[in-house]
Amino acid sequence: MTIDPITLTVIQAGMQQVCDEMDMTFSRAAFSPVIAEANDRSDGIYAADDGALIAQGAGGLPVFVGTMQYSTRTLIDMIDNGQVAAPKPGDIYIVNDPYLGGTHLMDVRFARPFYRKGELFCWLSNTGHWPDTGGAVPGGFSASATAVEQEGLRLPPVRLFKEGVLDQEIFSIISSNIRVADQRIGDVKAQAAALLVGEQRLNELMDRYGDGAVTEAIKELRGRAAQQMRAFIATIPEGTYKSTAWIDSDGVINKPLEIRLAITKANTDLIFDFEGTSPPCEGPMNSVKATTYSSVYLAMRHIFPEVPMSAGAFQPLSIMGIDNTFLDAHYPRPVSGCAAEVSQRIAEAVFAALVIPLPDRVTAAPAGTSGNFALGGFDPAHDRNFVMYQISGGGYGGNAEGDGLSNGCSTIGISKAPPVEIMEQAFPVLYHHYALHEGSGGAGLHRGGFGLDYEVELLRGHAKASFVMDHGRFGPQGALGGKDGVVNKVTVHRNGAAYTPPHLSKEQDIPLQCGDRVRVRTPGGGGYGDPLERPTSAVLEDVLLGRYSLDQAQTLFGVEIRGDPATVDEVTTNKIRQRRKPR
Questions:
Q1: Strand ranges of the sheet holding 462-468, from the earlier edge strand across to the other edge
Q2: Residues 409, 513 within the same domain
Q3: Of 393, 414, 18, nearest to 206 (Cα)?
Q4: Residue 170 resides in a domain
Q5: Domain range for residue 572?
Q6: Would you give per-residue pLDDT tens digits along the chain (583 residues)?
Q7: Residue 442 · residue 364 · CB < 8 Å
Q8: In sequence order, what DSSP letters do the residues of 97-133 get, joined into one string?
Q9: CA–CA gap between residue 111 and residue 191 (Å, rounded)
Q10: Is 181 in the same domain as 204?
Q11: Could you tell me if residue 257 is inside a domain?
């Protein structure tokens, strides 16, 4: 059958709405702040035969675009090969094994078969970040893990729900291996409820437009997504574009890891070649194949956001050269840093390569770290253990149209930091301040946005702090003459003494007592264009607002301000402008 453009658009929007409602249900019903407040989750619809992405919620993490597709395809293959029990209506599979199409162990995926008239039509799947899945440290972000077993409980695909009923034996195994297990039932039921809502809404959509029309729309949308991506790729001049991005260290060996990338335009396709990238590492900064692929996909989504979310959009993108590198981890390599940190550095490499041929579309590098900070301990006031997980934003890179956004969410998703009030209510902590990381934006014609500066105190009991962050050694890259953003900074204040981790922003099991404090200052985005070309009025405005000091204005932008900047008149401004000559 042939589907008309209007019906096609309506069905496309309808499937998007199904996924958006799943996202909303998941967040509203979840117990954990990281899901309920930070929205660290994603929901989507996937093809029954090959797991290809059909639709994903607009509010879901982009890094899950590729991983959930890969994971669903792996589940289908394992069912076909008899390695996993065949599905029945109402079943829900649970899996978090990173080597089977995942990220790290805290990202737990559910998959529910969707039946239509007795036949399997598609899969509904979602991923939620559980605040703990066991392992060596609370929260799972072990900075010095050398094997995946040290990072938490690894689950192959098993049916957690059988024909709609929770398998208490499997759930008991999970609960017995994680901290604060009493909260997990809330997240489990929220995750399952989201898939049930998706089933109901998708049935309503198909009842309204007919099974044949929806099937044809899915096929047509997949083809058109590939067509649209190729049309955008056609705007890139012929050639090969190279870049390099760096990971501070793997958390075990204090030596940088290098990501080398060469992007070649081949007719209407792009080839991403990572040949020459560092080999597999000892620590947890390895990336599994699914996450590496997804990182390239999400980077292209940032560059060409007009292309719809569909597996077809990935067809013109070929990835190679990851064999025997830390971007293709195999068991038992630890991977807790892959989704939140390495993925963002892969995207940064894509941006750095394509900003040359696409200067009007690609930005300077964003902060590029999720700021993973886990605090686990005992709260005597409530006589219970706790696990607090904090993510944080950073500066976006400057771009052709203007300055970068300050304290934006990470490159890999739209998750936001939970409100301070919620964190103080749920955990025995007090935030002393929560402000912009002033001076952190990279200088440029259009400066980078500013990172976040917060300090949190343990109010009672005892705890251990762990960090898996990055960009503590190398700041986010500037573009087209712009300067790098300021690096990530972590300082722990214990017994009146300041402590900086040897790996700068990676450390685990730092003991804290009542009154000890942790301060985190996240990176600013890279600058875009020559800083000496930035309008003097914009530099003065930043100084007046406290974004940069007078010394920084002179050093970074070549502006010399004498006296109170608030009293600088137009004549003086013109003189300053005339003195700003390119170095």
A1: 384-390, 372-379, 462-468, 506-513
A2: yes
A3: 18
A4: yes
A5: 535-579
A6: 688 999 999 999 999 999 999 999 999 999 988 899 889 999 999 999 999 999 998 888 888 878 999 999 999 999 999 999 999 999 999 999 999 998 999 999 999 999 999 999 999 999 999 989 999 998 889 999 999 999 999 999 999 999 999 999 999 999 999 988 877 899 999 999 999 999 999 999 999 999 999 999 999 999 999 999 999 999 999 999 999 999 999 999 999 999 999 999 998 999 999 999 999 999 999 999 999 999 999 999 999 999 988 999 999 999 999 999 999 999 999 999 998 899 999 999 999 999 999 999 999 999 999 999 999 999 999 999 999 999 999 999 999 999 999 999 888 877 778 899 999 999 999 999 999 999 999 999 999 999 999 999 999 999 999 999 999 999 999 999 999 999 999 999 998 899 999 999 999 999 999 999 999 999 999 999 999 999 988 999 999 899 999 889 988 998 776 556 555 555 455 555 555 444 4
A7: yes
A8: -GGGT-SSTTEEEEEEEEEETTEEEEEEEEEEE-S--
A9: 10
A10: yes
A11: no
- CA distances to 246, 265, 273, 322, 329 from 241, rounded to whole Å, are 17, 9, 10, 17, 26
Q: Are residues 522 and 385 in the same domain?
A: yes
* Domain identity same for 376 and 408: yes
**Between vectors from CA 108 to CA 124 and to CA 416, what angle results, nearest 5°?**
95
Domain count along the chain:
3
What values do phi and psi take at 393, rounded to 5?
Answer: -90, -175
Which of 171, 196, 226 delimits the end of a domain? 226
Residue 320, strand partner residues: 273
Q: Give a yes or no: residue 313 inside a domain.
A: no
Q: Are residues 29 and 157 in the same domain?
A: yes
Q: Is residue 212 part of a domain?
A: yes
Q: How far apart are the first and last CA of the chain?
A: 65
Q: Are residues 55 and 133 in the same domain?
A: yes
Q: How many CB atoms lie within 10 A of CB 552?
A: 18
Q: Which of 192, 226, 260 is the last residue of a domain?
A: 226
Query: Which among 538, 533, 62, 561 has a CA at the least distance from the CA of 309?
Result: 62
User: Six-digit token pair at 255?
Assistant: 């030596």
Give CA angle at 524 (345, 354), nearest 5°.
45
